[in-house]
């Protein structure tokens, strides 16, 4: 029966081409706006290279120290705090540390007077376990390199090609801010979409100019310059691990002398950490979800009202057909099902157009679309390219969202016209002109 309905809907499309075109384009534009939001959110939380373990990562980025004298300080975390609270957690595979670094970094190519600005991150050896980059040459710096503060570096393939051409880069030296570093490995470039791990050069955090072992900011002992990314093993219950980590942080915060410490609910699930913008306040996840839900609802509701009017006008022209079918005993539910099924074909075609159009919008606006979202970046690093891989855009999750949006939009725009057309009095439908 459904096949017959869809065939009839296809015939209606061919007979009413202008109506069909307007309906499909209107649906497509609505779906494209929702899909752009969905794809950007998907890139926040999905397992995307090199952050392919997001679904089993807990993140602790900051905390607040309240002194006994009434003062309050908030910042990133210290090595000591991270080790004390998370170092002995059971079910943890590795803990990646990333140091906050606000300095500018320039590479001096050999024989070239032009200095290249680069994005640099200072990390520990476990960083490469938590975020499994693809090594094209060499390997990551070792624990001995980190402990001894040996000036080694892992660099991205694009930078290696720019500095050394097609020659093998492993073992050679690069000059960063006029200091020499030995290249120990070359990795496949990360996309700027994965802003937390994106860089062109990765150093051991111990080689940073201002690094001091067990140093803490403002002498609190707990605040420093590190973010911690805790990778749970595959057989670990992430919810239970998060609860245990929160309890440890709470006990640790109350045991300090001279004040108390709170991480404001951290460590977060990875998706939660993308909404934590400030070190001294916790995000209201309920309000955020409500906000995004209202945006999506408005994007669906406004066009559905217009589409509903178009569907209703088309139903007026088919009242005689509906009257004849009801006179011969067709149930109201069957008529409503047919109208909704027919309308779904229009919505599906519009959704397909909208999905393709959303890909086009994201590709054409890739240099600034991430700046609309504070989760990513405020200013694109010079020379950086925002890469959207096929895996980010074309996957079952995104297609599933598109299909669901089409289904909801179809119900919103077709349900009321279908109900009205199927509940008209038979005599009125038969005499409709």
TrEMBL record:
All residue ranges annotated as the MacB-like periplasmic core domain in the record: 20-247
Subcellular location per the Swiss-Prot or TrEMBL entry: Cell membrane
Keywords, comma-separated and alphabetical: Cell membrane, Membrane, Transmembrane, Transmembrane helix
Primary localization class, coarse: membrane
One annotated GO molecular function: transmembrane transporter activity
Domain ABC3 transporter permease C-terminal: 294-425
Membrane topology of this protein: Multi-pass membrane protein
Membrane-spanning ranges: 21-43, 289-309, 344-364, 396-419
A Gene Ontology term for the protein's cellular component: plasma membrane
Coiled coil: none
Annotated protein name in UniProt: ABC transporter permease
The organism of origin for this protein: Parabacteroides acidifaciens
């Amino acid at each position: 029966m459904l096949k017959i309905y869809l065939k009839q809907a296809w015939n209606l499309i061919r007979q009413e081409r202008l109506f069909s075109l307007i309906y499909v384009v209107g649906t497509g534009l609505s779906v494209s706006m929702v899909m752009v939001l969905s794809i950007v959110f998907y890139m926040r939380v999905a397992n995307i290279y090199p952050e392919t373990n997001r679904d089993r990562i807990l993140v602790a980025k900051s905390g607040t120290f309240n002194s006994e004298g009434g003062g309050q300080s908030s910042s990133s975390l210290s090595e000591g705090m991270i080790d004390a609270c998370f170092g002995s957690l059971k079910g943890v595979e590795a803990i990646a540390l990333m140091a906050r670094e606000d300095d500018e970094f320039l590479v001096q190519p050999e024989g070239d007077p032009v200095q290249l600005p680069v994005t640099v991150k200072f990390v520990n050896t476990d960083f490469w376990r938590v975020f499994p980059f693809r090594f094209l040459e060499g390997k990551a710096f070792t624990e001995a390199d980190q402990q001894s503060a040996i000036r080694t570096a892992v660099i991205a393939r694009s930078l290696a090609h720019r500095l050394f051409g097609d020659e093998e880069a492993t073992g050679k030296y690069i000059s960063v801010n006029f200091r020499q570093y030995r290249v120990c490995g070359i990795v496949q470039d990360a996309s700027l979409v994965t802003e937390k791990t994106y860089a062109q050069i990765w150093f051991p955090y111990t080689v940073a100019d201002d690094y001091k072992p067990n140093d803490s900011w403002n002498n609190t002992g707990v605040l420093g310059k590190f973010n911690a990314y805790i990778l749970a093993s595959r057989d670990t219950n992430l919810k239970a691990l998060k609860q245990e980590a929160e309890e440890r942080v709470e006990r640790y915060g109350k045991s300090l002398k001279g004040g108390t410490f709170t991480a404001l609910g951290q460590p977060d699930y990875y998706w939660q950490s993308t909404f934590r913008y400030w070190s001294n306040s916790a995000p209201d996840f309920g309000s955020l979800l409500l906000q995004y839900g209202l945006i999506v609802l408005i994007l669906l509701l406004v066009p559905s009202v217009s589409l509903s009017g178009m569907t209703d006008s088309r139903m007026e022209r088919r009242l005689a057909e509906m009257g004849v079918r009801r006179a011969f005993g067709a149930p109201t539910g069957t008529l409503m099902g047919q109208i909704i099924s027919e309308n779904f074909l229009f919505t599906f075609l519009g959704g397909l157009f909208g999905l393709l159009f959303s890909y086009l919008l994201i590709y054409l606006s890739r240099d600034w679309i991430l700046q609309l979202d504070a989760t990513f970046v405020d200013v694109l690093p010079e020379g950086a390219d925002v890469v959207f891989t096929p895996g980010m855009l074309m996957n079952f999750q995104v297609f599933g969202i598109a299909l669901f949006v089409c289904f909801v939009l179809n119900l919103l725009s077709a349900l009321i016209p279908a109900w009205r057309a199927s509940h008209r009095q038979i005599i009125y439908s038969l005499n409709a002109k």
